[in-house]
């Protein structure tokens, strides 16, 4: 099921992350236009409709029924993702959804059923997969240059200045789904799985609250994941602290060599070669790249890099990590 350009987008949620998405659409005005926006906050809705000249809705269940909308872009708090996805799919709209896809195994089953029944395209907004260093690393891995993947490591940590006055829904597990790990920690999780090339089977984790003690959830996490292809992944993520200088953003070790990156420069060292290969790239707007790819998928019928299938697998890692932290033992990952 393809869409004629320009794709008519309905933006669901006009809060902070919507800024990055709107900037992305502004780079391809001949290919996509935001024609409608839904937000429950009257002030936000008024500001956004004036800013982009779009039709405004106070309820996303009304926006998804708009015949002038081809696809929706969901930029809501975490706990509202599932109902918005299901409503959009039931209305026959294609979907770009911010992280995480949803919050529970039960919600994941509902999402899968709705998307399958409607036959629409769902793309998970895993923007870091569009980093040039990540794309090149995946190309190297998939070429077989590293051989079988043994180990993957990812890191995403920064000193977050949240406080009880500005943290909002993220401070509460009922609306966020957890703490830092299901938020910022979601990025190194999907990156870990992407680079491993496998599907997660078992997880062991340790969660900590070092500094943001007013949160209901953790502010830091360390997670080990065993994948079905034999590779093992390790990630570190935090809002409590910045990673130490020199820490790799990601690295992969395989039977024939390794690669590592600070997020911009990729270094590849094969055992059979004396010289290290270095690939440098200028930074790009990963949100704009993600949105452009979403539009291309709708235009051509191409499969997105990550659909609900990968989104559910990533959620499986996260839920198993929370279970492991609770019990102190390794946890099995739910079937995707």
Brief account:
This protein is α/β, with parallel strands linked by helices and 336 residues long. It has helices spanning 18-26, 42-52, 60-63, 81-90, 105-118, 132-142, 173-176, 186-196, 286-300, 308-327, and strands spanning 7-12, 32-38, 55-57, 71-74, 94-97, 122-124, 149-157, 200-208, 220-227, 232-238, 250-254, 257-261, 266-270, 277-279, 331-332.
Per-chain topology:
Layout: E1 7-12, H1 18-26, E2 32-38, H2 42-52, E3 55-57, H3 60-63, E4 71-74, H4 81-90, E5 94-97, H5 105-118, E6 122-124, H6 132-142, E7 149-157, H7 173-176, H8 186-196, E8 200-208, E9 220-227, E10 232-238, E11 250-254, E12 257-261, E13 266-270, E14 277-279, H9 286-300, H10 308-327, E15 331-332
Parallel strand pairs: 1-2, 1-4, 2-3, 4-5, 5-6, 7-10
Antiparallel strand pairs: 7-11, 8-9, 8-15, 9-10, 11-12, 12-13, 13-14
Helix pairs in contact: 1-9, 4-5, 5-10, 8-10
Percent range of helical residues = 25-40%
Strand coverage percent = 15-25%
Approximate shape: globular
Which class of secondary structure composition applies to the elements? alpha/beta
Mean residue pLDDT: 97
Number of strands: 15
User: Quaternary arrangement of the chains shown?
Assistant: single chain
Largest sheet report:
9 strands, mixed
Which sequence of SSEs, written as H and E, runs from N to C? EHEHEHEHEHEHEHHEEEEEEEHHE
Stretches where pLDDT falls below 50 for ≥5 residues? Answer: none
Distance separating the two termini: 24 Å
Question: Order of strands in the sheet with the most strands?
Answer: 14-13-12-11-7-10-9-8-15
SS element count, helices: 10
Radius of gyration: 20 Å
Organism: Brachybacterium halotolerans
InterPro entries: Gfo/Idh/MocA-like_OxRdtase_N, Gfo/Idh/MocA_Oxidoreductases, GFO_IDH_MocA-like_dom, NAD(P)-bd_dom_sf
Keywords: NAD
Protein name: Gfo/Idh/MocA family oxidoreductase
């Amino acid at each position: 099921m393809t869409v004629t350009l320009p794709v008519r987008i309905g933006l669901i949620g006009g809060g902070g992350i919507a800024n990055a998405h709107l900037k992305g659409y502004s780079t391809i005005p001949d290919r996509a236009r935001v024609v409608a926006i839904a937000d429950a906050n009257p002030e936000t809705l008024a500001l956004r409709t004036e800013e982009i000249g779009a039709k405004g809705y106070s309820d996303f269940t009304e926006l998804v029924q708009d015949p002038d909308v081809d696809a929706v872009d969901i930029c809501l708090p975490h706990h509202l993702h599932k109902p918005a996805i299901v409503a959009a799919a039931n209305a026959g709209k294609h979907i770009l959804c911010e992280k995480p896809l949803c919050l529970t195994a039960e919600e994941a089953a509902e999402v899968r059923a709705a998307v399958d029944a409607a036959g629409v395209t769902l793309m998970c907004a895993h923007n870091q997969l569009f980093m040039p260093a990540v794309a090149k690393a995946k190309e190297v891995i998939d070429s077989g240059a590293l051989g079988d993947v043994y180990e993957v490591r990812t890191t995403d940590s920064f000193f977050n200045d949240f406080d009880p006055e500005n943290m909002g829904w993220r401070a509460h597990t009922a609306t966020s789904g957890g703490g830092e790990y299901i938020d910022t920690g979601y990025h190194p999780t999907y990156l870990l799985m992407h680079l491993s090339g496998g599907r997660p089977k078992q997880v062991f984790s340790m969660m900590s609250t070092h500094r943001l003690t007013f949160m209901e959830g953790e502010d830091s996490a360390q997670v080990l994941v065993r994948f079905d292809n034999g590779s093992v992944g390790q990630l570190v993520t935090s809002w409590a602290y910045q990673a130490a200088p020199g820490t790799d953003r990601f690295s992969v070790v395989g039977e024939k060599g390794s690669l590592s990156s600070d997020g911009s420069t990729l270094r590849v060292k094969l055992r059979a070669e004396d010289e290290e290969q270095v690939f440098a790239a200028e930074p790009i707007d990963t949100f704009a790249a993600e949105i452009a790819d979403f539009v291309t998928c709708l235009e051509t019928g191409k499969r997105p890099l990550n659909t609900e299938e990968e989104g559910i697998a990533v959620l499986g890692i996260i839920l198993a990590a929370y279970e492991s932290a609770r019990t102190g033992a390794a946890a099995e990952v739910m079937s995707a």
